[in-house]
Amino acid sequence: MGLGLLWSIIVGIAAGAIAGWLMKGSGFGIIMNLVVGLVGSLLGGWIYGLLGFHTDSILGVLLMSVVGAVVLLWIVSLFTRR
């Protein structure tokens, strides 16, 4: 069953906060961190699948989610430049 809903939310919040910190120097608030982290987790899982990687550990899932969230924020930044 994987990590379950609670772990997914916790990992999503952490991944969004880390990605926000890496890309801008600060997070976006708990709700936006959750959204960025969860969408980033899906994107990271897709990227990992394309590259042939697989992870089952909490640290691996967190890293995958952060990678996906950073890619997501980078893509968003391409459309929101001033």
Describe this structure in words.
With 82 residues, the chain is mainly alpha-helical. The chain is built from 3 helices and no strands. Helix 1 crosses helix 2 and helix 1 packs across helix 3. It is globular and about 35 Å long.
In terms of DSSP E residues, the strand content is under 5%
Q: Please, how many helices?
A: 3
Shape assignment: globular
- End-to-end span in angstroms? 43 Å
Helix-strand blueprint:
Layout: H1 4-24, H2 30-51, H3 58-79
Helix pairs in contact: 1-2, 1-3, 2-3
Task: Give a brief description.
The chain is an all-alpha fold and 82 residues long.
Which key terms come to mind for this protein?
79% helix; 0% strand; 82 residues; mainly alpha; single chain
